[in-house]
Amino acid sequence: MIAFDEKAFYDRIGAINGWDFRSVRSVTEGAAWDYGAKVTELCRPADVLLDIGTGGGEALLPLAAAVRLAIGIDRSPGMIEVARRHAARSSACHVRYACMDAEELMFPDGLFDAVICRHAPFHAGEVARVLTEGGVFVTQQVSERDKWNVKEAFGRGQAYGEPNGTLMGRCAEQLKEAGFTEVHCEEYDAVEYMREAEDLLFLLKHTPIIPCFGEVEGDAERFERFVAANRTERGIQTNSARFLIIARR
């Protein structure tokens, strides 16, 4: 098996694409919430917001109108370059980006009213430190069961073999240990249809769902077999599994 260098992967993809999957044509049925709507609901117009693992800023820019100042950070310089280009083309003048590691946030204590994190690692202690008293943290993460039939078809994958709920439980426990008094968790496992094979192909090439996709002998044949076996009238069927944590400091 080829060794998977996650950091190098994100740096390479970040410089090419940011974290933008709007070109992927898919339909999800049964999602229990909308991440952007959840964040907007919890933010106030005077808030200062931090987005950890902002990628190319695709999720942050639409949320910026809900707050006074939005700051996005990412550990990948390539991601931040893409995010700044996106911001320059938008009308949002109160969005800033910085290259920074989530484990060492270069901000003073209590600067942010809200901290968010979508599909990226975070450090619970650092989140607690930079939040105001009573501030809110919102994170949506990918569950172990996500794209389960794809992982089974390839015999490998992100968190493949780990019991479902492991990551959610670990994140919730870390937040409680960091001093968050209210920690609310929920999850969903929704049906997802990729319109065509090229949509699934783009997703697999630009995410770590199947580490080293295309570099392992037999991947092309596995992909073709999966598409043939899971094609329906709605598209190529798989699943989207997510969990959401809302925590108050």
Element layout with pairings:
Elements: H1 6-17, E1 26-29, H2 35-42, E2 48-52, E3 69-74, H3 77-89, E4 95-99, E5 112-118, H4 124-130, E6 131-142, H5 148-154, H6 166-177, E7 182-194, H7 197-206, H8 219-230, E8 236-248
Helix pairs in contact: 1-3, 5-8
Q: What's the short version?
A:
InterPro entries: 23S_rRNA_MeTrnsfrase_RlmA, Methyltransf_11, SAM-dependent_MTases_sf. The protein is of the alpha/beta class and 249 residues long.
Q: Could you tell me the radius of gyration in angstroms? A: 18 Å
- Largest sheet, order of strands side by side? 1-7-8-6-5-2-3-4
What's the SSE pattern? HEHEEHEEHEHHEHHE
Estimated share of beta-strand residues? 25-35%
Q: How many strands?
A: 8
Instruction: Characterize the biggest β-sheet.
Output: 8 strands, mixed
First-residue to last-residue Cα separation = 43 Å
Low-confidence stretches are none
- Structural class designation: alpha/beta
- The geometry reads as globular
The helix content is: 25-40%
Query: What is the residue-mean pLDDT, rounded to a whole number?
Result: 92
Pfam families: Methyltransf_11
GO molecular function: S-adenosylmethionine-dependent methyltransferase activity
InterPro entries: 23S_rRNA_MeTrnsfrase_RlmA (IPR052939), Methyltransf_11 (IPR013216), SAM-dependent_MTases_sf (IPR029063)
Keywords: Methyltransferase, Transferase
Task: Summarize the structure in words.
This protein has 249 residues and is an alpha/beta fold. The chain has helices at residues 6-17, 35-42, 77-89, 124-130, 148-154, 166-177, 197-206, 219-230, and strands at residues 26-29, 48-52, 69-74, 95-99, 112-118, 131-142, 182-194, 236-248. It contains 8 helices and 8 strands. Helix 3 links the parallel strand 3 (69-74) and strand 4. Helix 1 packs parallel to helix 3 (77-89) and helix 5 (148-154) packs across helix 8 (219-230). The radius of gyration is 18 Å and the shape is globular. The chain starts with 5 loop residues before the first helix and ends with a strand. The model has no long low-confidence stretch (mean pLDDT 92). InterPro entries: 23S_rRNA_MeTrnsfrase_RlmA, Methyltransf_11, SAM-dependent_MTases_sf.
